[in-house]
Amino acid sequence: MKRAVFVFMCMGLTSMVSAELVEVYDNTGDAYGNTRGFRIDFDASTTSVNVDWTPDLVDGQIYSLDSLTLKADSTNATVTPVYLGVYTGFDAGVWSGFLGVSDQAYDWGTPSVDTVLTYTFTGINVTVDSVVGSGSGLLYFMYQYGTDARTTYEITRATCKWNLGMADTFSNVIGDNNAIVSDRSPEYAAQLTAVPEPVTMVLLGLGGLLLRRKR
Questions:
Q1: Could you give the CA distance from residue 62 to residue 67 in angstroms, rounded to a whole number?
Q2: How far apart are CA 65 and CA 121, in angstroms?
Q3: In terms of domains, do 72 and 86 share one?
Q4: Distance (Å, rounded) from C-alpha 25 to C-alpha 18?
Q5: Mutual orientation of helices 198-214 and 2-16 as an angle, nearest 10°?
Q6: 153-166: per-residue pLDDT in tens?
Q7: Which residue in 4, 165, 180, 191 has the fewest CB atoms around it within 10 Å?
């Protein structure tokens, strides 16, 4: 009986480690040209966001960045395939706090307008907070050619814009003037997965052993 209860608890913990999703699309096909990247605030606050996370993000929780989907525009010239670099800092055109790059690169010159490009990531975490526009939940994404850290931009890309969130405080493009454009937001979809606490990981491991023994 005790073993059954313990296994049930571990199964419940496993179900808690689920993906968090958000989709910020309006499907208009409009684009911003010459953007050097963008920023996203992974925030637990829902006071001003136009599209909410499902389920809600939790303040103080560490999440792994699983994927980020963008919509490319047909005006991009053909270039060497582009990675998406992830940084924790951006100020006056200087990028800092390099966390890594996407698992793959895409040639933005070949897609037609509204083509969906999904970047996946490995080993990049973000700690969600409830401070809008700053804090540990704020990440900056740079379009770049290689996989090493950069301090200044390399290229600009045209990406589809989210017309329903022109003044959104949770996502903004970075323009070709090295400034965050407060009234321009990209279309994107993101997926995060909560990183279990060490104690939870131990319980999950024990639960897995008990399930195997029971079989």
A1: 15
A2: 6
A3: yes
A4: 22
A5: 130
A6: 988 888 888 876 55
A7: 4
